[in-house]
Amino acid sequence: MLSIEKQLLFLLSRTESMESQELIRIYEKRNYSAPYIRNALSRLKKEGYAITPSRSSYRITDAGRSFIQSINLKPRLYDDHWDHMWHLVMLEIPESERKKRDQFRTDITQVGFGLLYNSVYISPWSYDSEVLQLIDKHQLDKRVTIFRGTLPHQPITPEQASRIWQLPQVEQMYREQWQTFTGQFQPAMQKALHSHAEPLELFTLYLHLGEMISGLYLVDPMLPESLLPPQWEGKKILQTLQQHLAELVQAIPSDSFYASFLDKA
Description:
Residues 80-154 form the Transcriptional repressor PaaX-like central Cas2-like domain. It comes from Paenibacillus rigui. The protein folds into three domains: 3-67, Arc Repressor Mutant, subunit A; 85-149, Alpha-Beta Plaits; 166-261, no CATH class. Helix content is 54%, strand content 12%. A hairpin with a 2-residue loop joins strand 5 (114-117) and strand 6 (120-123). It has helices spanning 3-13, 20-28, 34-46, 62-73, 98-111, 128-137, 158-164, 167-194, 199-219, 234-251; strands at residues 18-19, 50-54, 57-60, 86-91, 114-117, 120-123, 144-149.
């Protein structure tokens, strides 16, 4: 799933249903074309995360709501206690179903699993319900095995974790997003806040920053500190971006149309 699709799903989760034209109007402000947004909505529908109760209207499904809740809870894992139990998923999907296999691999990686061995994925965190939903989504019953346990004789080191979860690539994405934030986004945000910009402009900035954060949610496995490389900056960067997102939330008037999509304290 792309970060823009996750964000569309988030907006749908905050309302009973939304017209595609309303979503297009919001995202055109961010220079997304109407065909691009329609295609993203179509993909959400194809994946079972949204339905169309009426023409041009979209509503989130239970599967979509579960997915968005699971991904949004991932950052809390940075502060969770790890019991040193491992959760593994083993695939037995034939080459004849390669497309289905590749889609499952992409989904399970975004949940937080890393590739331990060929067709064996591992996570320090329990994602049993998410994996079961993916098995159902891709119709892979009896082709996926879930189990848990310890690795007493071959503990995974931070060096191995870096390879399993491709942490150098994750770290690079954090650096790129941080450069974009400090060099482009933050000045635009401060200008809008100081000039008392219109609610739509503030909401557009909220969506922009939210999409940046969503992209990080999808690639960062949020590993326990003992598995991370020294001086890992992902957690700190993520917290800083979230603080600025909260600042935008508070700046959007509570009586505006866009406030309904926000959690305002």
